[in-house]
Amino acid sequence: MKAVLATDLSAASEATIENETCLECLGRIGIDEMHLVTVVPSNVHGGMPGIDFEKRRRRSISNYERVIERAGFDVETHVVRGTPHRRIRGIAETIGATMTVVGSRGKSPLENRVIGSTARNLSRTTETPLLVNRVERGTDDPAVVRQHLFQRMLHATDFSENAERAFEAFSYLRHATREASLVHVETPKDPGLPKDDDPESRLADLAAQLEEWGIETRTAVRRGDPADEILAAEDEYDPTTILVGSRGHSRLRRLLLGSVSEDLVARANGNVLLVPPA
């Protein structure tokens, strides 16, 4: 399996790459080939202070390449120019990546806005499962907030086709997952399930699948705003990663689910794994 690891070569991204537990977790779920990507923004050009920016990035990325190779991965590096989220997405689609990994914080306030924008735009447009790897904020030496990326999963589902596709990610996550919390949020804004369809029973069916794989599972039906309730469940259950479908197929549904996933990317304490429609 292949993964794209996107980096702006900031301290935060360095923390993500150099954390051996993070790399071990990716290896545990079957990733064996890593494509390390850094994008030189298209507005950096001759005559600007960053004229040699591309050369510096090529030198810097070689250090990251060695770290990943030592962890046992085949590595290919890509230093490209353009709009970050578009180039990252394009490379992921071209190589047939199973997952794209991006840090959620840059080193400086300006870089924080840039990497934040990249993560948000990827969450809206990615065709590949996107892991937003949370790193500590407000520190000069950031570290990965959740070292064991997939050990305790929180899966939020509305039982839609896209949510079912997100649940299917457990087929490979199960090799690193020990605990799972399955949550459905009922909301007045959503017509919800048919009257004869019981969300607790549907959650129980999903839990049974996970327990067959030896994953200890709890279920909960909550009521309220989806993003708020998912984040409240994160506070209660302390997962290492939230797993959620990123959007639906219709334009309206994409907007509604997209707003929830963007809220999770922006506000979650830990990592977020977004799975787009097929």
Automatic annotation (TrEMBL):
Top-level taxon of origin: Archaea
Pfam family, one: Usp
Record-linked CDD domains: USP-like
Chain ranges of the UspA domain: 4-132, 150-276
Gene3D superfamilies, per the entry: 3.40.50.12370, HUPs
Family, similarity comment: Belongs to the universal stress protein A family.
The protein's name in its UniProt record: Universal stress protein
Species of the source: Natrarchaeobius chitinivorans
